[in-house]
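Please produce the structure of this protein holding zinc ion.
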Amino acid sequence: MILIRCPHCRELRAEDELVYGGEAGLIRPAESVDDVQWTDYLFMRANPKGMHCEQWCCSAGCGQWFEVMRDTVTHRITAVAKFQQLVAPSGEMT
Ligand SMILES: [Zn+2]
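Below is the modeled complex.
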């Protein structure tokens, strides 16, 4: 079971109290992109075996979205933050 402390309300929540929102950090392309680029944005996602930056929602609590750095193999969480504040294990901002 995945347990994540929401960075907004500070409550520790189990994964069934949260909603997984997929890969974090995606940037919507300009309207002028071609169909291939738009399709990539809509459907193509990283599926790493290892560390992954994800977005989650505290759906049973405050309803806020936040980012999580999680190992997809072990489910070990190394960082949780409000958007644009996540610091990767390397110390770099994501
Ligand atoms: Zn919350």
